[in-house]
Specification:
The protein has helices at residues 45-54, 56-68, 122-153, 192-204, 213-222, 226-240; strands spanning 2-8, 11-19, 26-29, 35-39, 84-87, 90-98, 104-108, 111-116, 161-165, 172-175, 180-184. It is of the alpha/beta class and 241 residues long. The strands form three sheets. Strands 1-2-4-3 form a four-stranded mixed β-sheet, covered by helices on one side. A four-stranded mixed β-sheet has the order 5-6-8-7, covered by helices on one side. A three-stranded mixed β-sheet has the order 9-11-10, covered by helices on one side. It starts with a strand and ends with a helix.
Length: 241
């Protein structure tokens, strides 16, 4: 793989060239905004550079489109007053307050209050916040199950239990053999109607353990606006994680 760059419209376009046994010169803009050109060993780099430059307008357009949907990477947490934390689709500012009484976390009127004996104890603050999120997740996720389960109960689906785990690649998973719905702990940062969508999605898997036409037909029937809820999860919530 060889790295090159050209200038187009006063912008520098970096690209990599991968040599393969192909007949044509192919150009790809990847979701991570990297630009790759595949070409045969016999194609000179001057030809490739001119080819990339001729596609400059198209490249910048697609890079711009991908840039708009790049997930926002949360900076490393410090757990200090003023930091922003998401809960049920809304942003709350953190207020760290020293206490000589019971350590706890609570939210009130746009703020999350972290009461801790030692405000400089990073690991303790992190643990308290994690435990608070986990406690809230167990309550809210089970409330969601109680809300949407009746949709599937009439089809003979046995009520599953909820389990919670941090997952990198999915919001939920139906463990049909264990009669369990596994939910991503990060889902507690999404609005309740998005949580309802994920729970319903996984519940339907107890009838159709795939993403077949029958699966989506039932999903559309029980939640006609599921695509909007999913879009909020994938576009807005992920961006803030």
């Amino acid at each position: 793989m060889e790295k090159y760059q050209i200038e187009y419209a006063n912008k520098i376009i970096d690209f990599v060239v991968t040599r393969k046994k192909v007949k044509n010169v192919n150009l790809h803009v990847k979701p991570d905004m990297t630009i790759e050109v595949t070409a045969n060993e016999r194609v000179p780099i001057d030809f490739i550079s001119n080819f990339v430059k001729s596609k400059g307008s198209w490249i910048l357009k697609h890079v711009g489109n991908f840039k708009e949907v790049q997930p926002y990477k949360q900076s490393e947490r410090e757990y200090v007053s003023g930091e922003s934390f998401k809960y049920l689709g809304k942003q709350y500012r953190l207020r760290v307050q020293q206490t000589s009484e019971e350590e706890m976390v609570k939210y009130f009127r746009g703020f999350i209050y972290l009461h801790v004996k030692d405000p400089n104890n990073f690991s303790r603050k992190a643990k308290l916040m994690e435990e608070w999120y986990r406690k809230k997740a167990r309550i809210i996720f089970n409330e969601s199950l109680e809300k949407v389960y009746p949709f599937l109960q009439k089809y003979g689906v046995e009520k599953p239990k909820i389990d919670i785990r941090l997952m990198k690649a999915r919001w939920g998973s139906a463990q049909t053999e264990k009669k369990t719905i596994l939910l991503n702990s990060e889902l507690i940062k999404a609005p309740k109607y998005c949580i309802d969508y994920v729970v319903l999605h996984e519940l339907i898997h107890f009838m159709y353990n795939d993403h077949s036409e029958n699966f989506y037909q039932m999903l559309y029937t029980l939640m006609p606006d599921w695509e909007k809820r999913k879009a909020i999860l994938d576009e807005e919530v992920v961006r803030d994680l």
